[in-house]
Specification:
- The complex is a heterodimer of chains A (385) and B (218).
- Chain A is built from 17 helices and 17 strands.
- With 385 residues, chain A is α/β, with parallel strands linked by helices.
- In chain A, α5 crosses α7 and α15 packs antiparallel against α16.
- The radius of gyration of chain A is 26 Å and the shape is elongated.
- Chain A starts with a strand and ends with a helix.
- With 218 residues, chain B is mostly helical.
- Chain B has one domain: MetI-like fold, CATH 1.10.3720.
- The relative contact order of chain B is 0.15.
- The chains are: A alpha/beta (385), B mainly alpha (218).
- Chains A and B meet through α2, α4 and α7 of A and α6 and α7 of B.
- The structure holds adenosine-5'-triphosphate and magnesium ion.
- Magnesium ion binds next to α1 of chain A.
Protein backbone atom coordinates (compact mmCIF):
# COMPACT_ATOMS: atom_id res chain seq x y z
CA UNK A 1 0.00 0.00 0.00
CA UNK A 2 1.24 3.47 -0.87
CA UNK A 3 0.37 5.06 2.46
CA UNK A 4 2.40 2.66 4.57
CA UNK A 5 4.84 4.88 6.43
CA UNK A 6 6.92 2.06 7.85
CA UNK A 7 7.43 -1.12 5.88
CA UNK A 8 9.71 -3.87 7.12
CA UNK A 9 10.48 -6.77 4.84
CA UNK A 10 12.10 -9.99 5.91
CA UNK A 11 14.30 -8.54 8.65
CA UNK A 12 16.72 -11.01 10.19
CA UNK A 13 19.29 -10.53 12.90
CA UNK A 14 21.50 -13.05 14.56
CA UNK A 15 23.87 -11.75 17.22
CA UNK A 16 27.44 -13.01 17.01
CA UNK A 17 28.00 -16.04 19.16
CA UNK A 18 24.33 -17.04 19.38
CA UNK A 19 22.97 -19.87 17.33
CA UNK A 20 19.31 -18.80 17.30
CA UNK A 21 18.51 -15.52 15.54
CA UNK A 22 16.99 -12.76 17.72
CA UNK A 23 14.73 -11.73 14.85
CA UNK A 24 13.88 -13.99 11.96
CA UNK A 25 12.08 -12.91 8.82
CA UNK A 26 10.01 -10.08 10.30
CA UNK A 27 7.70 -8.26 7.89
CA UNK A 28 5.38 -5.52 9.09
CA UNK A 29 3.60 -2.47 7.70
CA UNK A 30 2.45 0.54 9.63
CA UNK A 31 0.07 2.93 7.85
CA UNK A 32 0.89 6.64 8.05
CA UNK A 33 -0.43 8.37 11.15
CA UNK A 34 -1.17 5.19 13.06
CA UNK A 35 0.22 3.51 16.15
CA UNK A 36 1.34 -0.09 15.77
CA UNK A 37 2.11 -1.80 19.04
CA UNK A 38 4.60 -4.63 19.28
CA UNK A 39 3.71 -6.81 22.20
CA UNK A 40 5.22 -10.08 23.27
CA UNK A 41 7.06 -11.85 26.05
CA UNK A 42 10.38 -10.60 27.39
CA UNK A 43 13.28 -11.40 25.10
CA UNK A 44 11.17 -12.05 22.02
CA UNK A 45 13.06 -9.44 20.03
CA UNK A 46 10.97 -6.27 20.34
CA UNK A 47 13.85 -3.95 21.19
CA UNK A 48 16.06 -5.57 18.57
CA UNK A 49 13.33 -4.95 15.99
CA UNK A 50 13.10 -1.28 16.95
CA UNK A 51 16.86 -0.88 16.80
CA UNK A 52 16.87 -2.26 13.29
CA UNK A 53 14.35 0.33 12.12
CA UNK A 54 16.73 3.18 12.98
CA UNK A 55 19.71 0.94 12.24
CA UNK A 56 21.35 1.06 15.64
CA UNK A 57 21.52 -2.62 14.85
CA UNK A 58 22.17 -3.38 11.21
CA UNK A 59 19.94 -6.20 9.98
CA UNK A 60 21.71 -9.22 8.46
CA UNK A 61 19.13 -9.39 5.70
CA UNK A 62 15.86 -7.70 4.87
CA UNK A 63 14.86 -4.19 3.90
CA UNK A 64 13.42 -1.17 5.67
CA UNK A 65 11.22 1.30 3.82
CA UNK A 66 10.15 4.63 5.26
CA UNK A 67 7.47 6.47 3.33
CA UNK A 68 8.11 4.19 0.36
CA UNK A 69 11.88 4.80 0.30
CA UNK A 70 14.42 2.12 0.97
CA UNK A 71 16.49 3.44 3.86
CA UNK A 72 18.47 0.28 4.48
CA UNK A 73 21.59 1.89 3.04
CA UNK A 74 20.99 5.57 3.82
CA UNK A 75 23.30 7.59 6.05
CA UNK A 76 22.29 6.34 9.47
CA UNK A 77 22.74 9.61 11.38
CA UNK A 78 20.64 11.58 8.90
CA UNK A 79 18.00 8.89 9.05
CA UNK A 80 17.88 8.90 12.84
CA UNK A 81 17.26 12.62 13.03
CA UNK A 82 13.96 11.97 11.26
CA UNK A 83 12.96 9.15 13.58
CA UNK A 84 12.11 10.03 17.15
CA UNK A 85 13.50 7.38 19.47
CA UNK A 86 12.39 6.79 23.03
CA UNK A 87 14.53 4.04 24.49
CA UNK A 88 13.44 1.56 27.10
CA UNK A 89 15.78 2.98 29.78
CA UNK A 90 14.98 6.65 28.94
CA UNK A 91 18.68 7.54 28.68
CA UNK A 92 18.53 11.28 29.38
CA UNK A 93 21.93 12.99 29.21
CA UNK A 94 22.68 13.56 32.91
CA UNK A 95 25.14 16.40 32.35
CA UNK A 96 22.68 18.47 30.33
CA UNK A 97 19.62 20.39 31.47
CA UNK A 98 16.11 19.39 30.52
CA UNK A 99 16.06 22.10 27.84
CA UNK A 100 19.38 20.93 26.41
CA UNK A 101 18.20 17.34 26.43
CA UNK A 102 14.98 18.17 24.64
CA UNK A 103 16.72 20.35 22.03
CA UNK A 104 19.30 17.70 21.09
CA UNK A 105 18.14 17.20 17.51
CA UNK A 106 17.18 20.83 16.73
CA UNK A 107 20.66 21.90 17.84
CA UNK A 108 22.23 19.34 15.52
CA UNK A 109 19.99 20.58 12.73
CA UNK A 110 21.23 24.11 13.53
CA UNK A 111 17.87 25.70 14.17
CA UNK A 112 18.24 29.28 15.33
CA UNK A 113 18.28 29.82 19.07
CA UNK A 114 14.95 31.57 19.44
CA UNK A 115 13.09 28.95 17.46
CA UNK A 116 14.74 26.16 19.44
CA UNK A 117 13.84 27.79 22.73
CA UNK A 118 10.22 28.27 21.71
CA UNK A 119 10.02 24.69 20.53
CA UNK A 120 11.47 23.31 23.77
CA UNK A 121 8.93 25.22 25.85
CA UNK A 122 6.15 24.03 23.58
CA UNK A 123 7.30 20.41 23.97
CA UNK A 124 7.52 20.66 27.75
CA UNK A 125 4.07 22.20 27.84
CA UNK A 126 2.74 19.39 25.69
CA UNK A 127 4.14 16.83 28.10
CA UNK A 128 2.58 18.63 31.03
CA UNK A 129 5.84 20.00 32.43
CA UNK A 130 5.83 23.72 33.23
CA UNK A 131 8.79 25.07 31.19
CA UNK A 132 9.65 27.72 33.77
CA UNK A 133 10.00 25.10 36.47
CA UNK A 134 11.65 22.32 34.51
CA UNK A 135 13.67 23.92 31.70
CA UNK A 136 16.89 24.38 33.68
CA UNK A 137 16.75 21.32 35.88
CA UNK A 138 19.09 18.41 35.50
CA UNK A 139 17.75 14.87 35.06
CA UNK A 140 18.84 13.86 38.56
CA UNK A 141 16.28 16.32 39.93
CA UNK A 142 13.36 14.68 38.10
CA UNK A 143 11.08 11.83 39.13
CA UNK A 144 10.98 8.68 37.00
CA UNK A 145 7.76 9.77 35.33
CA UNK A 146 9.08 13.25 34.61
CA UNK A 147 12.18 11.73 33.06
CA UNK A 148 10.13 9.58 30.75
CA UNK A 149 8.14 12.61 29.69
CA UNK A 150 11.33 14.54 28.96
CA UNK A 151 12.48 11.51 26.96
CA UNK A 152 9.31 11.65 24.88
CA UNK A 153 9.66 15.43 24.47
CA UNK A 154 13.24 14.95 23.26
CA UNK A 155 12.13 12.41 20.68
CA UNK A 156 9.29 14.65 19.47
CA UNK A 157 11.16 17.95 19.45
CA UNK A 158 12.30 18.11 15.82
CA UNK A 159 8.86 16.92 14.73
CA UNK A 160 9.93 13.62 13.13
CA UNK A 161 7.20 11.91 11.12
CA UNK A 162 8.09 8.54 12.62
CA UNK A 163 8.51 7.60 16.27
CA UNK A 164 9.94 4.48 17.86
CA UNK A 165 8.83 4.18 21.46
CA UNK A 166 10.25 1.31 23.49
CA UNK A 167 8.16 0.92 26.64
CA UNK A 168 7.99 4.68 27.06
CA UNK A 169 5.71 4.51 30.08
CA UNK A 170 7.26 1.44 31.65
CA UNK A 171 8.73 3.05 34.76
CA UNK A 172 5.59 4.85 35.86
CA UNK A 173 3.00 3.89 38.45
CA UNK A 174 -0.36 2.74 37.05
CA UNK A 175 -2.24 5.97 37.80
CA UNK A 176 0.28 8.26 36.19
CA UNK A 177 0.80 5.84 33.36
CA UNK A 178 -2.88 5.98 32.59
CA UNK A 179 -2.76 9.77 32.59
CA UNK A 180 0.32 9.87 30.37
CA UNK A 181 -1.23 7.40 27.96
CA UNK A 182 -4.33 9.58 27.70
CA UNK A 183 -2.26 12.73 27.23
CA UNK A 184 -0.23 11.00 24.59
CA UNK A 185 -3.28 9.77 22.70
CA UNK A 186 -4.76 13.25 22.77
CA UNK A 187 -1.50 14.57 21.38
CA UNK A 188 -1.34 11.91 18.72
CA UNK A 189 -4.83 12.92 17.57
CA UNK A 190 -3.24 16.23 16.53
CA UNK A 191 0.25 15.15 15.57
CA UNK A 192 -0.63 12.04 13.59
CA UNK A 193 2.82 10.49 13.84
CA UNK A 194 3.48 7.03 12.59
CA UNK A 195 4.50 5.16 15.71
CA UNK A 196 6.03 1.83 16.46
CA UNK A 197 5.31 1.29 20.14
CA UNK A 198 6.69 -1.53 22.25
CA UNK A 199 5.19 -2.85 25.44
CA UNK A 200 4.73 -6.15 27.15
CA UNK A 201 1.57 -5.00 28.83
CA UNK A 202 -1.40 -6.22 26.79
CA UNK A 203 -3.74 -3.63 28.32
CA UNK A 204 -1.43 -0.85 27.23
CA UNK A 205 -1.29 -2.42 23.76
CA UNK A 206 -5.08 -2.49 23.52
CA UNK A 207 -5.33 1.07 24.68
CA UNK A 208 -2.57 2.62 22.58
CA UNK A 209 -2.65 0.57 19.42
CA UNK A 210 -4.50 1.24 16.21
CA UNK A 211 -3.03 -2.14 15.45
CA UNK A 212 -1.31 -4.69 17.59
CA UNK A 213 1.36 -7.11 16.45
CA UNK A 214 1.54 -10.03 18.83
CA UNK A 215 5.05 -11.42 18.71
CA UNK A 216 6.55 -14.63 19.85
CA UNK A 217 10.21 -15.68 20.04
CA UNK A 218 12.41 -14.29 17.25
CA UNK A 219 9.88 -11.55 16.58
CA UNK A 220 7.56 -13.95 14.81
CA UNK A 221 4.29 -12.12 14.15
CA UNK A 222 1.52 -14.39 15.38
CA UNK A 223 -1.27 -11.91 14.72
CA UNK A 224 -1.38 -8.36 13.42
CA UNK A 225 -4.73 -6.68 13.56
CA UNK A 226 -6.84 -4.06 15.32
CA UNK A 227 -7.25 -4.54 19.08
CA UNK A 228 -10.96 -5.22 18.62
CA UNK A 229 -10.34 -7.91 16.04
CA UNK A 230 -7.62 -9.56 18.07
CA UNK A 231 -9.87 -9.63 21.13
CA UNK A 232 -12.78 -10.90 19.06
CA UNK A 233 -10.83 -13.58 17.22
CA UNK A 234 -7.46 -14.54 18.68
CA UNK A 235 -5.43 -16.37 16.02
CA UNK A 236 -4.35 -19.23 18.26
CA UNK A 237 -3.82 -20.41 21.81
CA UNK A 238 -0.64 -18.37 22.19
CA UNK A 239 -2.57 -15.17 21.51
CA UNK A 240 -5.46 -16.35 23.70
CA UNK A 241 -3.06 -17.03 26.59
CA UNK A 242 -1.36 -13.73 26.05
CA UNK A 243 -4.63 -11.82 26.12
CA UNK A 244 -5.57 -13.52 29.36
CA UNK A 245 -9.10 -13.66 30.74
CA UNK A 246 -11.93 -11.15 30.55
CA UNK A 247 -11.57 -10.60 26.85
CA UNK A 248 -15.19 -9.51 26.50
CA UNK A 249 -14.88 -7.04 29.33
CA UNK A 250 -11.77 -5.60 27.67
CA UNK A 251 -13.59 -5.28 24.40
CA UNK A 252 -16.26 -3.26 26.16
CA UNK A 253 -13.51 -0.74 26.72
CA UNK A 254 -12.96 -0.48 22.97
CA UNK A 255 -16.54 -0.52 21.68
CA UNK A 256 -18.42 2.77 21.76
CA UNK A 257 -21.99 3.61 22.63
CA UNK A 258 -23.84 4.36 19.39
CA UNK A 259 -27.28 5.96 18.88
CA UNK A 260 -28.72 2.57 17.90
CA UNK A 261 -28.36 1.41 21.50
CA UNK A 262 -30.65 4.13 22.85
CA UNK A 263 -34.24 3.60 23.97
CA UNK A 264 -36.81 6.31 24.24
CA UNK A 265 -37.92 6.64 27.83
CA UNK A 266 -40.74 8.56 29.55
CA UNK A 267 -39.49 11.81 31.05
CA UNK A 268 -41.79 13.76 33.38
CA UNK A 269 -41.48 17.35 34.50
CA UNK A 270 -40.58 17.84 38.16
CA UNK A 271 -43.55 20.21 38.53
CA UNK A 272 -46.03 17.57 37.40
CA UNK A 273 -48.03 15.32 39.75
CA UNK A 274 -46.94 11.87 40.95
CA UNK A 275 -50.27 10.48 39.73
CA UNK A 276 -49.71 11.56 36.14
CA UNK A 277 -46.15 10.23 36.31
CA UNK A 278 -47.42 6.87 37.54
CA UNK A 279 -49.77 6.66 34.57
CA UNK A 280 -46.96 7.36 32.13
CA UNK A 281 -44.87 4.68 33.82
CA UNK A 282 -47.60 2.09 33.40
CA UNK A 283 -48.35 3.13 29.83
CA UNK A 284 -44.68 2.75 28.79
CA UNK A 285 -44.30 -0.46 30.80
CA UNK A 286 -41.00 0.58 32.38
CA UNK A 287 -39.82 0.06 35.98
CA UNK A 288 -39.18 3.75 36.58
CA UNK A 289 -39.60 7.17 34.96
CA UNK A 290 -37.06 9.94 34.57
CA UNK A 291 -37.78 13.22 36.34
CA UNK A 292 -36.44 16.29 34.55
CA UNK A 293 -35.40 19.57 36.12
CA UNK A 294 -36.54 22.96 34.85
CA UNK A 295 -34.13 22.80 31.89
CA UNK A 296 -35.55 19.46 30.76
CA UNK A 297 -32.49 17.49 31.76
CA UNK A 298 -33.33 14.20 33.52
CA UNK A 299 -31.95 14.29 37.06
CA UNK A 300 -33.69 11.55 39.04
CA UNK A 301 -35.20 8.11 38.68
CA UNK A 302 -38.58 7.43 40.29
CA UNK A 303 -40.08 3.93 40.41
CA UNK A 304 -43.74 2.99 41.07
CA UNK A 305 -43.31 2.60 44.84
CA UNK A 306 -41.73 6.03 45.14
CA UNK A 307 -44.41 7.64 42.97
CA UNK A 308 -47.27 6.07 44.95
CA UNK A 309 -45.92 7.45 48.19
CA UNK A 310 -44.89 10.89 46.94
CA UNK A 311 -46.82 14.12 47.04
CA UNK A 312 -44.39 16.03 44.83
CA UNK A 313 -41.81 14.98 42.22
CA UNK A 314 -39.07 17.22 43.53
CA UNK A 315 -36.20 15.37 45.12
CA UNK A 316 -37.91 12.04 44.56
CA UNK A 317 -36.11 8.71 43.96
CA UNK A 318 -32.42 8.36 43.07
CA UNK A 319 -29.95 10.42 41.12
CA UNK A 320 -29.59 9.51 37.44
CA UNK A 321 -26.22 8.21 36.26
CA UNK A 322 -25.25 9.79 32.95
CA UNK A 323 -22.82 9.18 30.10
CA UNK A 324 -22.10 10.82 26.78
CA UNK A 325 -22.85 9.30 23.43
CA UNK A 326 -19.75 7.45 22.08
CA UNK A 327 -18.49 6.69 25.58
CA UNK A 328 -16.75 3.30 25.86
CA UNK A 329 -19.29 0.59 26.66
CA UNK A 330 -17.21 -0.28 29.71
CA UNK A 331 -17.94 3.18 31.13
CA UNK A 332 -21.65 2.71 30.41
CA UNK A 333 -21.67 -0.61 32.20
CA UNK A 334 -19.82 0.95 35.12
CA UNK A 335 -22.33 3.78 35.38
CA UNK A 336 -25.19 1.32 35.17
CA UNK A 337 -23.84 -0.88 37.95
CA UNK A 338 -22.78 1.99 40.15
CA UNK A 339 -26.05 3.92 39.70
CA UNK A 340 -28.29 1.03 40.77
CA UNK A 341 -30.75 2.34 38.22
CA UNK A 342 -32.73 0.68 35.44
CA UNK A 343 -30.76 2.66 32.88
CA UNK A 344 -28.21 5.36 32.19
CA UNK A 345 -29.21 8.73 30.75
CA UNK A 346 -27.26 9.54 27.61
CA UNK A 347 -26.44 13.08 26.52
CA UNK A 348 -25.06 14.20 23.18
CA UNK A 349 -21.96 16.34 22.70
CA UNK A 350 -23.86 19.48 23.71
CA UNK A 351 -25.20 17.92 26.88
CA UNK A 352 -28.72 17.44 25.52
CA UNK A 353 -30.61 14.35 26.65
CA UNK A 354 -30.97 11.93 23.76
CA UNK A 355 -32.18 8.71 25.35
CA UNK A 356 -31.52 5.94 27.79
CA UNK A 357 -29.45 2.80 27.57
CA UNK A 358 -30.46 -0.10 29.80
CA UNK A 359 -28.95 -3.50 30.53
CA UNK A 360 -30.71 -5.41 27.71
CA UNK A 361 -29.53 -2.77 25.23
CA UNK A 362 -25.99 -3.10 26.55
CA UNK A 363 -26.05 -6.87 26.24
CA UNK A 364 -27.24 -6.47 22.67
CA UNK A 365 -24.46 -4.02 21.92
CA UNK A 366 -21.88 -6.40 23.37
CA UNK A 367 -23.30 -9.10 21.13
CA UNK A 368 -22.77 -6.93 18.09
CA UNK A 369 -19.04 -6.65 18.89
CA UNK A 370 -18.55 -10.22 17.81
CA UNK A 371 -18.22 -9.65 14.10
CA UNK A 372 -14.62 -8.55 13.45
CA UNK A 373 -14.60 -5.17 11.74
CA UNK A 374 -12.38 -4.12 8.91
CA UNK A 375 -10.62 -1.29 10.66
CA UNK A 376 -11.45 0.63 13.75
CA UNK A 377 -13.66 3.42 12.46
CA UNK A 378 -11.84 6.71 12.01
CA UNK A 379 -8.51 7.55 13.53
CA UNK A 380 -7.62 8.45 17.05
CA UNK A 381 -9.02 11.95 16.62
CA UNK A 382 -12.66 11.03 16.75
CA UNK A 383 -12.20 8.36 19.29
CA UNK A 384 -10.33 10.20 22.00
CA UNK A 385 -11.19 13.87 21.81
CA UNK B 1 80.19 29.52 63.19
CA UNK B 2 77.05 27.87 61.90
CA UNK B 3 75.44 29.25 58.76
CA UNK B 4 72.18 31.16 58.51
CA UNK B 5 69.03 29.58 59.91
CA UNK B 6 66.58 28.09 57.42
CA UNK B 7 64.32 31.08 57.74
CA UNK B 8 67.21 33.51 57.12
CA UNK B 9 68.18 31.45 54.08
CA UNK B 10 64.72 31.66 52.64
CA UNK B 11 64.54 35.41 53.17
CA UNK B 12 67.93 36.00 51.61
CA UNK B 13 67.08 33.90 48.55
CA UNK B 14 63.47 34.93 48.08
CA UNK B 15 63.77 35.87 44.42
CA UNK B 16 65.69 32.78 43.43
CA UNK B 17 63.34 30.47 45.30
CA UNK B 18 60.31 32.09 43.78
CA UNK B 19 61.76 31.82 40.27
CA UNK B 20 62.60 28.15 40.75
CA UNK B 21 59.12 27.43 42.12
CA UNK B 22 57.55 29.09 39.10
CA UNK B 23 59.80 27.11 36.76
CA UNK B 24 58.90 23.93 38.58
CA UNK B 25 55.20 24.66 38.28
CA UNK B 26 55.43 25.54 34.62
CA UNK B 27 57.38 22.45 33.66
CA UNK B 28 54.94 20.28 35.61
CA UNK B 29 51.91 21.87 33.99
CA UNK B 30 53.37 21.73 30.49
CA UNK B 31 54.21 18.06 30.92
CA UNK B 32 50.79 17.44 32.43
CA UNK B 33 49.05 19.14 29.52
CA UNK B 34 50.98 17.00 27.05
CA UNK B 35 50.31 13.90 29.14
CA UNK B 36 46.61 14.70 29.43
CA UNK B 37 46.13 15.18 25.70
CA UNK B 38 48.09 12.05 24.82
CA UNK B 39 46.69 10.06 27.73
CA UNK B 40 43.05 10.90 27.01
CA UNK B 41 43.57 10.11 23.33
CA UNK B 42 45.17 6.78 24.22
CA UNK B 43 42.41 6.15 26.74
CA UNK B 44 39.73 6.72 24.09
CA UNK B 45 41.60 4.44 21.72
CA UNK B 46 41.98 1.76 24.39
CA UNK B 47 38.28 2.02 25.23
CA UNK B 48 37.14 1.78 21.63
CA UNK B 49 39.49 -0.92 20.44
CA UNK B 50 39.23 -3.71 22.92
CA UNK B 51 42.22 -5.58 21.49
CA UNK B 52 44.51 -2.63 22.22
CA UNK B 53 43.28 -2.02 25.73
CA UNK B 54 45.59 -4.40 27.58
CA UNK B 55 48.59 -3.31 25.56
CA UNK B 56 48.10 0.40 26.05
CA UNK B 57 47.43 0.24 29.78
CA UNK B 58 50.25 -2.27 30.24
CA UNK B 59 52.73 -0.04 28.44
CA UNK B 60 51.71 3.03 30.44
CA UNK B 61 52.24 0.96 33.58
CA UNK B 62 55.59 -0.28 32.38
CA UNK B 63 56.82 3.29 31.84
CA UNK B 64 56.21 4.05 35.51
CA UNK B 65 58.56 1.25 36.52
CA UNK B 66 61.50 2.74 34.59
CA UNK B 67 63.70 4.58 37.09
CA UNK B 68 63.77 8.25 36.15
CA UNK B 69 67.54 8.24 36.10
CA UNK B 70 67.49 5.59 33.41
CA UNK B 71 64.75 7.36 31.46
CA UNK B 72 66.74 10.61 31.49
CA UNK B 73 69.84 8.79 30.30
CA UNK B 74 67.86 7.51 27.35
CA UNK B 75 66.10 10.79 26.58
CA UNK B 76 69.21 12.95 26.78
CA UNK B 77 70.70 10.88 24.03
CA UNK B 78 67.73 11.75 21.83
CA UNK B 79 66.78 15.23 22.96
CA UNK B 80 69.89 16.75 24.53
CA UNK B 81 70.00 18.49 27.90
CA UNK B 82 67.55 21.04 29.32
CA UNK B 83 63.82 21.31 29.77
CA UNK B 84 62.78 19.17 26.81
CA UNK B 85 63.80 15.73 28.11
CA UNK B 86 62.21 16.62 31.45
CA UNK B 87 58.87 17.52 29.86
CA UNK B 88 58.91 14.34 27.81
CA UNK B 89 59.81 12.15 30.77
CA UNK B 90 57.17 13.72 33.02
CA UNK B 91 54.53 13.46 30.32
CA UNK B 92 55.35 9.77 29.97
CA UNK B 93 55.09 9.22 33.73
CA UNK B 94 51.73 10.98 33.84
CA UNK B 95 50.16 8.62 31.33
CA UNK B 96 49.09 5.66 33.45
CA UNK B 97 46.59 7.36 35.79
CA UNK B 98 45.15 9.40 32.93
CA UNK B 99 44.80 6.51 30.49
CA UNK B 100 43.38 4.19 33.10
CA UNK B 101 40.87 6.71 34.37
CA UNK B 102 39.83 7.66 30.85
CA UNK B 103 39.03 4.04 30.09
CA UNK B 104 37.26 3.60 33.41
CA UNK B 105 35.32 6.84 32.99
CA UNK B 106 34.15 5.95 29.49
CA UNK B 107 33.24 2.43 30.55
CA UNK B 108 31.17 3.91 33.36
CA UNK B 109 28.93 5.90 31.02
CA UNK B 110 25.52 4.25 30.90
CA UNK B 111 25.02 2.34 27.61
CA UNK B 112 21.44 3.62 27.58
CA UNK B 113 22.69 7.20 27.42
CA UNK B 114 25.03 6.34 24.56
CA UNK B 115 22.25 4.53 22.71
CA UNK B 116 19.95 7.50 23.21
CA UNK B 117 22.60 9.78 21.72
CA UNK B 118 23.06 7.43 18.79
CA UNK B 119 19.31 7.19 18.33
CA UNK B 120 18.99 10.98 18.11
CA UNK B 121 21.40 10.89 15.20
CA UNK B 122 24.65 11.91 16.87
CA UNK B 123 27.64 10.62 14.94
CA UNK B 124 30.38 8.82 16.82
CA UNK B 125 32.66 11.87 17.17
CA UNK B 126 29.90 14.12 18.34
CA UNK B 127 28.79 11.41 20.74
CA UNK B 128 32.32 11.16 22.12
CA UNK B 129 32.85 14.89 22.51
CA UNK B 130 29.37 15.94 23.64
CA UNK B 131 28.23 12.97 25.67
CA UNK B 132 30.83 10.38 26.58
CA UNK B 133 33.82 12.55 27.49
CA UNK B 134 31.79 15.08 29.50
CA UNK B 135 30.22 12.21 31.41
CA UNK B 136 33.59 10.53 31.96
CA UNK B 137 35.22 13.85 32.87
CA UNK B 138 34.99 13.60 36.68
CA UNK B 139 36.88 10.31 36.58
CA UNK B 140 39.37 11.55 33.98
CA UNK B 141 40.02 14.67 36.01
CA UNK B 142 40.79 12.56 39.05
CA UNK B 143 43.38 10.75 36.95
CA UNK B 144 44.94 14.03 35.88
CA UNK B 145 45.04 15.15 39.49
CA UNK B 146 46.81 11.99 40.59
CA UNK B 147 49.31 12.45 37.77
CA UNK B 148 49.93 16.07 38.76
CA UNK B 149 50.93 15.10 42.28
CA UNK B 150 52.96 12.19 40.95
CA UNK B 151 55.07 14.18 38.49
CA UNK B 152 55.56 17.27 40.62
CA UNK B 153 57.84 15.11 42.74
CA UNK B 154 59.56 13.37 39.86
CA UNK B 155 60.17 16.77 38.27
CA UNK B 156 62.69 17.53 41.02
CA UNK B 157 65.01 15.00 39.47
CA UNK B 158 65.01 16.91 36.20
CA UNK B 159 67.88 18.99 37.49
CA UNK B 160 70.33 16.22 36.67
CA UNK B 161 69.79 16.88 32.97
CA UNK B 162 69.93 20.65 33.49
CA UNK B 163 66.17 20.91 33.73
CA UNK B 164 64.61 23.90 35.50
CA UNK B 165 62.79 23.93 38.83
CA UNK B 166 63.29 23.27 42.52
CA UNK B 167 65.38 20.20 41.79
CA UNK B 168 68.25 22.60 41.12
CA UNK B 169 68.31 23.49 44.81
CA UNK B 170 68.22 19.91 45.94
CA UNK B 171 70.97 18.91 43.55
CA UNK B 172 73.09 21.89 44.60
CA UNK B 173 72.57 20.96 48.21
CA UNK B 174 73.68 17.46 47.43
CA UNK B 175 76.82 18.71 45.77
CA UNK B 176 77.72 20.81 48.79
CA UNK B 177 77.09 18.26 51.48
CA UNK B 178 79.01 19.33 54.56
CA UNK B 179 78.79 23.04 53.88
CA UNK B 180 76.43 24.97 56.20
CA UNK B 181 74.07 25.99 53.42
CA UNK B 182 73.60 22.51 51.96
CA UNK B 183 70.85 21.44 54.32
CA UNK B 184 68.96 24.68 53.87
CA UNK B 185 69.02 24.31 50.10
CA UNK B 186 67.84 20.73 50.13
CA UNK B 187 65.20 21.57 52.69
CA UNK B 188 63.92 24.58 50.76
CA UNK B 189 63.75 22.55 47.55
CA UNK B 190 61.95 19.66 49.17
CA UNK B 191 59.51 21.85 51.02
CA UNK B 192 58.81 23.76 47.83
CA UNK B 193 58.00 20.57 45.97
CA UNK B 194 55.71 19.33 48.72
CA UNK B 195 53.86 22.64 48.94
CA UNK B 196 53.53 22.76 45.18
CA UNK B 197 52.09 19.25 45.21
CA UNK B 198 49.50 20.17 47.82
CA UNK B 199 48.63 23.35 45.93
CA UNK B 200 48.19 21.44 42.66
CA UNK B 201 46.03 18.85 44.36
CA UNK B 202 43.75 21.55 45.71
CA UNK B 203 43.76 23.43 42.42
CA UNK B 204 42.56 20.36 40.54
CA UNK B 205 39.91 19.72 43.11
CA UNK B 206 38.74 23.29 42.51
CA UNK B 207 38.91 22.85 38.76
CA UNK B 208 36.33 20.10 39.09
CA UNK B 209 33.84 22.59 40.43
CA UNK B 210 34.14 24.63 37.25
CA UNK B 211 34.43 21.91 34.67
CA UNK B 212 32.06 19.21 35.91
CA UNK B 213 28.43 19.73 34.95
CA UNK B 214 26.13 20.56 37.86
CA UNK B 215 24.04 17.64 36.68
CA UNK B 216 26.83 15.26 37.67
CA UNK B 217 27.76 16.77 41.01
CA UNK B 218 26.42 16.05 44.48
N1 LIG C 1 23.56 -6.85 21.73
C1 LIG C 1 23.14 -8.13 21.89
N2 LIG C 1 24.02 -9.15 21.82
C2 LIG C 1 23.62 -10.42 21.96
N3 LIG C 1 22.34 -10.79 22.18
C3 LIG C 1 21.41 -9.82 22.26
C4 LIG C 1 21.76 -8.44 22.13
N4 LIG C 1 20.63 -7.71 22.26
C5 LIG C 1 19.63 -8.59 22.48
N5 LIG C 1 20.09 -9.86 22.48
C6 LIG C 1 19.27 -11.08 22.64
O1 LIG C 1 18.27 -11.07 21.65
C7 LIG C 1 17.02 -11.48 22.19
C8 LIG C 1 15.99 -10.40 21.98
O2 LIG C 1 16.29 -9.30 22.80
P1 LIG C 1 15.42 -7.97 22.84
O3 LIG C 1 16.14 -6.99 23.68
O4 LIG C 1 15.09 -7.56 21.46
O5 LIG C 1 14.10 -8.47 23.60
P2 LIG C 1 12.80 -7.67 24.01
O6 LIG C 1 11.66 -8.29 23.30
O7 LIG C 1 12.99 -6.21 23.81
O8 LIG C 1 12.70 -8.00 25.56
P3 LIG C 1 12.16 -7.10 26.79
O9 LIG C 1 10.69 -7.15 26.75
O10 LIG C 1 12.71 -7.81 27.98
O11 LIG C 1 12.73 -5.72 26.62
C9 LIG C 1 17.28 -11.82 23.64
O12 LIG C 1 17.44 -13.19 23.73
C10 LIG C 1 18.55 -11.10 23.98
O13 LIG C 1 19.28 -11.81 24.95
MG1 LIG D 1 13.14 -4.57 25.14
Amino acid sequence: MADDMIRLEGLCKRFPGQHAPAVEGLSLRVPAGRIAVLVGPSGCGKTTTMRMVNRIIEPDTGRIYLDGQDVTARDADQLRRQIGYVIQQVGLFPHLTVAQNVSTVPRMLKWDKARTRRRVDEMLDLMGLDPARYRDRYPKALSGGERQRVGVARALCADPPVMLMDEPFGAIDPINRDRLQNEFLRLQAELRKTILFVTHDIDEAIKMGDRIAILRERSEVVQYDTPANILAAPADDFVRDFLGGRRTLRRLGLARLGPEELRPWPVVDQDGTPGAALEQLRAADVPAVLVADRTGRPVRWADATALERATSLRGIGHAVPGVRLHAPLADVLDALLAGQAPGVAVADGDGRHVGVVDLPALVQAAGRMHEPSDERSGGRGEVHS
Amino acid sequence: MTGPTFWEYVQQNQVKLWTLTQQHLVITLVALAVGAVVGIALGVLAYRVRQLRGGIIGTAGLILTIPSLALYALLVGLLGLGALPVVVALAMYSLLPIVRNTVAGLAGVSPAVVEAAQGQGMGSWRRLLRIQLPLAWPVILTGVRVSAVLIVGIAALGAIVNGPGLGVLILDGLRRVGSPVALNMALAGTLGVVLLGVALDLAFLGLGRFTISRGLRG
